[in-house]
């Protein structure tokens, strides 16, 4: 006999599948194009040169076209034919490395600084206004400044990821550290635990769930921002891929890229969800 | 002059209000000594500063005046010499039961190797009967078991003195009884010096050698020291057969219900009280102790208030 939870999950999956089929069917029906008759006096070759008759030109591509794009890209994800023609796997790898570098740098800054802010009410009050002002700034607003001062588009992209992912981590770390239960700190005090051991063995695990929540939010923002940043900066990455395919008017490829961005974003979120679960403790 | 194991001299604590002005002191002029191996309980109504006294002894809180000497040395800041069992067990929920005790043992003997630390921690967990659940997380234990882990953790560092802040307050009566027995057994086996806060009169009589009665705050003081004159071999099951039990119990309850509030201001009880030498009382054995009797007209309204 199956448990109620399993049954529920099975039914939810079936419903998801049904919704997907319905959306695809509707999409298909809406994108059926009537056979275009060639205007009189126009040969097929001339029509093609005018951009007519080729199937991609107007309106939303059909599911079949997008499906073909999926197959083409996924069957050969790592090809490299020059600067404007790289496989989706390579583009993704560029984006992920940028996110990892920017996010990693943000962790290196946000964790120690957040610890300091969380432990010192003085520092918390002194740095509060700066954080409050800088936090709501759209990461892309930093782009011109970064491009001008850093003079390297790739590093500028990493800097933008850094600057956007630092705030949630900083704020959550400070909050988590500041709200560690007094009694655990008192236990450490009565046991004459040194400051370093107290930070690593008491405060860090106590604040870990809050810190990881901040990291998860940061990673979500970083993945949102990398696409936009790469569109601006160009060259490589999944964002540049989207922009390039838009310039090619290859909308099936754009839709494919949207799906890939969504799936990778979900995977990253799932990863941090797992980490969060590992750090969470029940009281 | 003989040196006491622990001496409290002229202790006072004043908290400040939001505007930074000092309030009336919670307690003041506290004098007290505890000898090695003694079990001392402190009883008083909420707000008389019991927990603050304990925190000062633990070194977690600073007194506003006076000082605490332990074996002749002034207490300043927390120390591994004094183990604390906290009111809300204060176990770290992300560590297993064993690791919680290990954390304390490693603090006490940082030079020990991991197997020795674990074996030592295990010994104390088994002492409180929790060897079987060593690998569980605190959240998987009942309230009584968690409190026993807290006791094992405090004992495991083999402190010179144990401070317990109402350790059984949150437990049901049945669990409380079992753990009291356990604590009694362990304390007797190790001849540990203990200072304990409790609200439970019976608990105090069962466990303590001396019971400190604190008057109501603010300006609380040690009104009397009651000596528990029953043999140390008393148990929870048999102690109510001892006639002394009821004499002591009545004395404590009388104090809490009627007399604890008479020490404020310039009342007769306060005037007759010498905070340097609070009277040592042995209820039922000597009636010569300086217990200021209340005039009848002051007892009646109090009784009416108690009975609602």
Low-confidence stretches of chain B: 288-308
User: Biggest interface in this structure?
Assistant: A-B, 19 and 24 residues
Task: Give a short account of the largest sheet of chain A.
Answer: none
Structural class category of chain A: mainly alpha
Task: Write the CATH architecture name of chain B.
Answer: 3-Layer(aba) Sandwich
Q: Termini of chain A, distance in Å?
A: 33 Å
The CA-CA distance between the termini of chain B, in Å, is 50 Å
Q: What would your notes on this structure say?
A:
The complex is a heterodimer of chains A (283) and B (308). Helix content of chain A is 75%, strand content 0%. Chain A has eleven helices and no strands. The longest helix of chain A is centred in the last third of the chain and has 39 residues. The two termini of chain A are 33 Å apart. The model of chain A has no long low-confidence stretch (mean pLDDT 88). In chain B, the strands form two sheets. In chain B, strands 6-7-8-3-9-10-11 form a seven-stranded mixed beta sheet, with helices on both faces. In chain B, strands 2-1-4-5 form a four-stranded antiparallel beta sheet, with helices on one face. In chain B, a hairpin with a 7-residue loop joins strand 9 and strand 10. In chain B, helix 2 packs across helix 3, helix 2 packs parallel to helix 4 and helix 3 crosses helix 4. The C terminus of chain B is likely disordered. Chain B has one domain: P-loop containing nucleotide triphosphate hydrolases (Rossmann fold). With 308 residues, chain B is of the alpha/beta class. At the A-B interface, helix 8 and helix 9 of A face strand 6 and helix 2 of B.
């Amino acid at each position: 006999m199956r448990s109620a939870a399993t049954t529920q999950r099975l039914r939810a999956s079936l419903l998801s599948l049904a919704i997907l089929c319905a959306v695809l069917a509707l999409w298909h029906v809406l994108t059926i194009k009537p056979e275009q008759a060639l205007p009189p006096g126009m040969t097929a070759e001339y029509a093609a040169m005018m951009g007519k008759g080729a199937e991609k030109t107007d309106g939303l591509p059909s599911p079949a076209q997008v499906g073909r794009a999926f197959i083409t890209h996924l069957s050969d994800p790592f090809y490299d034919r020059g600067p404007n023609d790289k496989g989706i796997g390579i583009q993704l790898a560029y984006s992920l490395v940028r996110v990892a570098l920017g996010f990693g740098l943000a962790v290196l800054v946000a964790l120690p600084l957040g610890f300091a802010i969380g432990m010192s009410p003085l520092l918390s009050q002194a740095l509060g206004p700066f954080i409050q002002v800088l936090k709501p700034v759209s990461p892309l607003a930093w782009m011109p400044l970064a491009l001008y001062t850093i003079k390297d588009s790739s590093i500028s992209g990493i800097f933008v990821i850094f600057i956007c992912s630092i705030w949630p981590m900083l704020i959550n770390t400070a909050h988590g550290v500041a709200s560690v239960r007094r009694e655990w700190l008192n236990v450490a005090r009565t046991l004459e635990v040194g400051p370093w051991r107290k930070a690593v063995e008491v405060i860090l695990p106590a604040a870990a769930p809050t810190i990881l929540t901040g990291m998860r939010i940061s990673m979500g923002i970083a993945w949102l921002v990398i696409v936009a940043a790469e569109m601006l900066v160009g060259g490589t990455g999944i964002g540049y891929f989207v922009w390039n395919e838009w310039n090619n008017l290859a909308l099936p490829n754009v839709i494919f890229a949207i799906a890939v961005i969504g799936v990778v974003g979900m995977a990253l979120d799932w990863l941090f969800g797992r980490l969060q679960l590992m750090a969470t403790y029940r009281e | 002059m003989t040196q006491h194991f622990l001496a409290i001299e002229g202790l006072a604590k004043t908290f400040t209000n939001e505007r930074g002005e000092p309030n009336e002191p919670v307690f003041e002029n506290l004098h007290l000594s505890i000898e090695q191996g003694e079990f001392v309980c402190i009883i008083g109504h909420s707000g008389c500063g019991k927990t603050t006294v304990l925190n000062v002894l633990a070194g977690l809180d600073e007194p506003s005046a006076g000082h605490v000497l332990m074996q002749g040395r002034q207490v300043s800041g927390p120390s591994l010499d004094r183990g604390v069992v906290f009111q809300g067990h204060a176990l770290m929920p992300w560590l297993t039961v064993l690791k919680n005790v290990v954390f304390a043992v490693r603090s006490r003997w940082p030079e020990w190797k991991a197997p020795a630390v674990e074996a030592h921690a295990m010994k104390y967990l088994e002492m409180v009967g929790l060897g079987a659940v060593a690998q569980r997380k605190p959240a998987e234990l009942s309230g009584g078991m968690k409190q026993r882990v807290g006791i094992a953790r405090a004992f495991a560092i083999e402190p010179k003195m144990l401070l317990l802040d109402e350790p059984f307050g949150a437990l049901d009566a049945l669990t409380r009884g079992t753990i009291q027995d356990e604590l009694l057994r362990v304390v007797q086996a190790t001849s540990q010096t203990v200072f304990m806060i409790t609200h439970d009169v019976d608990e105090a009589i069962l466990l303590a050698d001396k019971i400190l009665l604190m008057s109501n705050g603010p300006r609380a003081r040690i009104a009397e020291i009651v000596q528990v004159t029953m043999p140390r071999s008393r148990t929870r099951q048999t102690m109510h057969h001892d006639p002394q039990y009821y004499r002591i119990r009545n004395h404590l309850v009388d104090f809490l219900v009627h007399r604890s509030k008479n020490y404020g201001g310039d009342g007769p009880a306060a005037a007759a009280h010498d905070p340097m030498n609070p009277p040592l009382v042995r209820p039922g054995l000597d009636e010569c102790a300086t217990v200021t009797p209340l005039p009848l007209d002051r007892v009646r309204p109090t009784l009416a208030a108690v009975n609602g």
